[in-house]
């Protein structure tokens, strides 16, 4: 989606990418990628590698290619 957004958007803001088991305040964070859910289909693909994705997005943020929002959303937006 990021690659697609670069073709159509002047600014890219991403929310909700946090690969750690706790938020910045130490509260538990639940992710469906790591849940013990069962599905009615089979797939050869593996779940997202969230820590690697976060590292890549952080790097793009540092380069100014996107704005990665990791805290609470601003109520004024």
From TrEMBL:
Protein's UniProt keywords contain Transcription regulation: no
Keyword set, alphabetical order: Glycoprotein, Glycosyltransferase, Golgi apparatus, Membrane, Signal-anchor, Transferase, Transmembrane, Transmembrane helix
Family statement: Belongs to the glycosyltransferase 29 family.
Organism: Acipenser ruthenus (Sterlet sturgeon)
GO annotation terms (biological process): N-glycan processing; oligosaccharide metabolic process
Protein name, per record: Alpha-2,8-sialyltransferase 8B
Membrane topology: Single-pass type II membrane protein
InterPro entries linked to this entry: Glyco_trans_29 (IPR001675), Glycosyltr_29_Sialyltrsf (IPR050943), GT29-like_sf (IPR038578)
Pfam families xref list: Glyco_transf_29 (PF00777)
Protein's UniProt keywords contain Membrane: yes
Recorded superkingdom: Eukaryota
